[in-house]
Amino acid sequence: MSLSTASNIAQSGLNTVSSEISVLSRNIAGANNTGISSEKTANIITALGGGSQVASITRATNLAVFQNLLQATSANAAQTSLLSGISTLNQTIGNISSSSSSSGSADNSPAALLSNFTNALQSFEASPSDSSLATAAVSQASALAQGLNSATATINTAREQADAGIATSVQTINSLLSQFQSVNTQIVNGMATGADVTDAQDARDTILTQLAQQIGISTTTSPNGGMSIYTDSGVTLFQGGTARTVTFSPTATYTPSTTGNAVYVDGVPITGSSASTPISTGNIAGLANLRDNLATTYQAQLDNMAGALIATFAESPQSGSGPNLPGLFTTPGATALPTSTTGLAGQITINPSVDPSQGGNPFLLRDGGISGNANYVYNTTGQASYSARLSQLLTQLSAPQTFAADGDIATNTSLSAYASGSVGWLENQYSTASSQQTYQSTLVSTATTALSNSTGVNIDTEMSKMLDLENSYSATAKLISAIDSMFNTLVTNLSNITVPA
Hints:
Layout: H1 3-30, E1 40-46, E2 52-59, H2 63-89, H3 110-126, H4 131-193, H5 198-214, E3 217-221, E4 227-231, E5 236-239, E6 242-243, E7 246-247, E8 264-265, E9 268-269, H6 283-312, E10 329-330, H7 344-347, E11 349-350, H8 364-367, H9 388-398, E12 401-402, E13 412-413, H10 415-455, H11 459-496
Antiparallel strand pairs: 1-2, 3-4, 4-5, 5-6, 7-8, 8-9, 10-11, 12-13
Helix pairs in contact: 1-11, 2-4, 2-5, 2-6, 2-10, 3-4, 3-9, 3-10, 4-5, 4-6, 6-10
């Protein structure tokens, strides 16, 4: 082997080791990144004429584990947003995160307020001439009505917050898709020219994990390195190098009759009743589930309670004929019983004519005629000890009633049992969401660890490689120095050769 050949081989080795050290330095630097940072490897081949060179740089990948991470991330995000919304609804019944209603956690619930009112009504029945007991019964009725009003306001707030969260999530998705499009183009172009695109691939995977938090996704990769993204229901989000547009029209104010708008991908609904392919995971899915399903079901339960209260305490004509009229419980300005329960929990109030704080007479609860119509008076003789009407109301209050099925609980039961069932239903929703969130969070942690173990950087391993490369670099440098010395000796010797005259 000539000195020239040896020098070229040694120089190529030095360049190769330098390239390997550069890649290793990138690995170490990326180990502290918060996003995806995979281990990079410099692939060495034998160069023409001897020596070595870096043919390419590749990264460690594990597609199955990464897909598991995306799925777990989306499922966890859905449960987290749902749990947060249920926590807002919990304000209507107290803290149920650590104990059940049987231990007093639901003291603020409509069920507890109904129980307080029933007890006050029973006390009034026992002493129907006691004005303080009459006032107390009306006061407890007012507290019950206000509790239903407050619960409805809380539900509206939860739905408004969910709607605003969906709007923010849609903005985030569009931003991430725009970033993804730029990085994906960089990867496709880089692979076409043989450039190192491993950092861009890491960046693309990081964007995917962020996107998965907002919406459930699946991906496919084409031979040119480009990627396509679909929702977990199969709707295209990104394909052919182009991001689809995700749109949503937010609704600022909610009432029980408000229907939230759907989220669309290129005009195709992916949330709401009109969606033929609705998404099931991701932040948007959890928020939409809360806004459109869970919160509206709970609202229906409260409305059914309000409707039952108005109907139970309605007065019927005691002389002549006529329709039943609102009694103790009514809605502002009403002169007839409501024909629909929608929104009643937010409107229910006690009749001003029986409310002492509004100049009313609490004894009308005992005597009847709350509507002001003499034909609806039960205590026609004005007896102070009259209790028949109160007994009748208590009997009706404990009797089975028919409730609409939209409350998703019993449809034929007493009002108190229905109210307790509502508390139990919400407790179960919280418990289920909490358990699922904990489970999905564990899956995210497990998948993250598995991906790190499979494709991530191990600092100890990298430092060991660094020592090996430093030794190789030192040895190669010494070889080059030796060859350089040999060249110098050769040149010196050649210069000392005397050419005969």
